[in-house]
Amino acid sequence: MTSINAGLNPYAQLGSAYARAAAPQSSLADALIAVDSGNQPDTNAATNLTLSAAARAQLASAATFKDFATVTSDARSALDGLYTAANVKGPISDEGATTIDLSSFDRRSLFAIATNNGGKFSPDEQKVASTELANRYNDALAPAAATSKLTGDFSPVYKAALDYLDGASGEEKATASWSVQRAAVLKGVQATQQNPTAAPTGITNDPVAAYLAQNAPGGTTATENISTIAKNVRATLDAQAKAAAAAGKELVFDPGRKTGQQADLSSFDGRSLAAISLNQDGLFSKQESFAAKQTLDSHARASILSALKQSQSSGDPTQLSLGILNTYSSLSAEERQAINWTPAFRDNLVANYKSSSQILSILRG
């Protein structure tokens, strides 16, 4: 079970952020990562030259980077495939309902469709792609917006918007609309650095202000019934078991097992894993529920480590509480229940954030 001491000490956070020693020793984040991976911390890590995960990912991406014409052509083919699979002729029915799901399309492909690159897409296709892009922008801001509501600090939601814009492809960044929006968001970031407790006003073309006006609560927007999710997951696991049996193997859920075919939980999102872990309808075995719980706990630890590293690298102790709160806000009720992230845990994070902010203000004079 992933558990965090509800009484996190904000003074300890301040010490971690501001009292970094010059001695070449492993950081707390490095130690935790080593423990989580089953390895011992390397006390001589400073002598090793390694590429970060982000750098490795960038190199891998560069090696397989497609030109935009290829992306456009692939998107056209993928759309046609969806129509065939759904036995429909277009993305919108005569009744005005969306007939296909574009959640599997990456952002660059959606941008190609939304902008009708190469003249290959219909107005309806452009419309559904634009809607999907807007939904992804909203999803990127929702956790930070919920955190801002809890803490009264608007800086996380502007940072989330800036990160989302900076994650755009080169083609998207070349548009005037992207430049205008980024300039507006950057002004918001600067404003919240001066006064995080006030929502910036008077910024022309501010997409964050528009989002906050329409989506005040923030947080997860999960709506699909958890029992329906459980049934779908059950069918997926049964298919994996059938494939394993066809190969003369047993589907297993213990990574320590030397025989059998390991179940693949990597394609399941958080609510799917929570459905297995909680097992409210009794559809899963103890082994399946335990494996899903372990996966969710691993995700939770990763989010905590990310927040810790951000706090240490920025010298801002409030980033630890804010980072974990962002994760809390992004989780569904079922995911929070599965990893035991309770409202009391959330309230203590808020209290720690406010204490750290007050102490930081005193130190800054």
What can be said about the biggest beta sheet? Answer: 2 strands, parallel
Quaternary state reads single chain
Radius of gyration: 23 Å
| Helix-strand topology string | HHHHHHHHHHHEEHHHHH
Low-confidence parts, pLDDT < 50 over ≥5 residues?
A: 1-28, 40-49
Q: Strand order within the widest sheet?
A: 1-2
End-to-end Cα distance, whole Å, is: 41 Å
- Alpha plus pi helix count: 16
> Helicity range of the residues?
55-70%
What's the total number of strands? 2
Which overall shape is indicated by the principal axes computed on the Cα atoms?
Answer: globular
Number of domains: 3
Structural class: mainly alpha
Strand content: under 5%
What would the average pLDDT be, to the nearest integer?
Answer: 85
Can you describe this structure in just a few lines?
The chain has 365 residues and is mostly helical. The protein has helices spanning 10-18, 28-36, 53-63, 68-86, 107-114, 123-151, 155-166, 170-173, 176-194, 207-214, 226-246, 270-278, 286-314, 318-330, 333-339, 343-364; strands at residues 251-252, 261-262. Helix 12 packs across helix 13 (286-314).
